[in-house]
Design goal:
8-stranded parallel sheet, 312 residues, two-stranded antiparallel sheet, alpha/beta
């Protein structure tokens, strides 16, 4: 049975394990997933209790939204959809407040729906976060028209989080957080106090916390960003955290449970490419990480990980 958590101020409940849609139709960064397989995967996710789907116009150059829309046709009322604004389907970026409406309208067409549950400004420059450029006024208009239920930002750092928590009325924060990147947890309570939903992205540290990489791993495409030194450091850290796994608990399941140990977190969005990964992700919701393990991982972050340059 999938556990659910309240999605900020929307009044909706979402599955604590969500569906990261970056891979759907994405031929740029991943081996392409056949369209029928992508649709079947979304259907299976729904059947297994996932109702939160995260996408963006630039995922698969618009294909992620299209496939999600195709899969959810006739099933829209069973799903909570989060999409974004800023990175466009043609691969360019435009954060102009005057572009928000057009972006949302096109997303609605791709998603075959008349509203999305949330729209996030997608990793904008810091000076746009405080609302002085008119972005939130535009989003408020779309909210008043019923085209979106809530809005927020997708960011990666504590300064970004605090800027929007303190100066705006956003309802959602999507942030990077995982065992190897725990900095953002420092602002979780502040967000919760403002009734802001927290979506956790990059929960498996771009695959490292799935346990499938080691010091000999080589990478292509989007993952070729890691230097040999970073690969060595990450592999060594993986050895240090193997205590969180056992015969019933894979590294993926444990990594997701660590995130869900934070009550402020609303949902976590691991990527998913096949049924086996989907089932493994969902299994994380079946049990909690022991408190002693959570504490040990928090201590490891403070003493050994925080000051290492691991990139993302």
């Amino acid at each position: 049975m999938m556990n659910s958590r309240t999605y900020g101020r929307t009044g909706k409940s979402v599955s604590e394990i969500g569906f990261g849609g970056w891979q759907l139709g994405n031929r740029q960064d991943w081996e392409a997933m056949e369209e029928d397989a992508a649709v079947r995967l979304v259907h299976e996710a729904l059947e297994r209790g996932i109702n939160f789907f995260d996408t963006a116009p630039n995922y698969g150059l618009g294909k992620s939204e299209e496939l999600l829309g195709k899969a959810l046709a006739g099933k829209r009322r069973n799903a909570v959809i989060n999409t974004k604004f800023g990175h466009q389907a043609d691969g360019s970026s435009n954060y102009g407040a005057d572009q928000i409406r057009a972006s949302v309208e096109v997303s609605l067409q791709r998603l075959q729906t008349d509203y999305v549950d949330s729209v996030l400004i997608h990793n904008p420059p810091f000076d746009m976060l405080d609302g002085k450029h008119g972005h939130y006024e535009e989003l408020e208009k779309l909210k008043a028209e019923g085209k979106i239920l809530t809005y927020g930002v997708s960011v990666d750092s504590i300064p970004d989080m605090l800027e929007v928590i303190e100066h705006t009325n956003i309802g959602v924060l999507e942030v990077m957080f995982n065992i190897f990147y725990q900095e953002t947890a420092e602002a979780f309570k502040r967000a919760q106090d403002n009734n802001i939903a927290i979506i956790v992205k990059v929960p498996l540290d771009s695959g490292w916390l799935s346990g499938k990489y080691n010091s000999q791993s080589s990478f292509e495409g989007v993952r070729s960003r890691w230097s040999p030194e970073v690969i060595r450091k990450r592999a060594a850290l993986l050895e240090q955290i193997k205590f969180i796994t056992n015969e019933e608990t894979t590294m993926t399941m444990a990594a997701l449970r660590f995130i869900l140990a934070y009550p402020e977190v609303t949902t976590v969005i691991p990527g998913v490419r096949n049924s086996a990964q989907l089932i493994e992700n969902i299994s994380a919701s079946a049990a909690a990480m022991p408190e002693a393990h959570v504490k040990k991982l928090q201590d490891l972050w403070i003493t050994e990980i925080r000051d290492q340059k691991l990139g993302w």
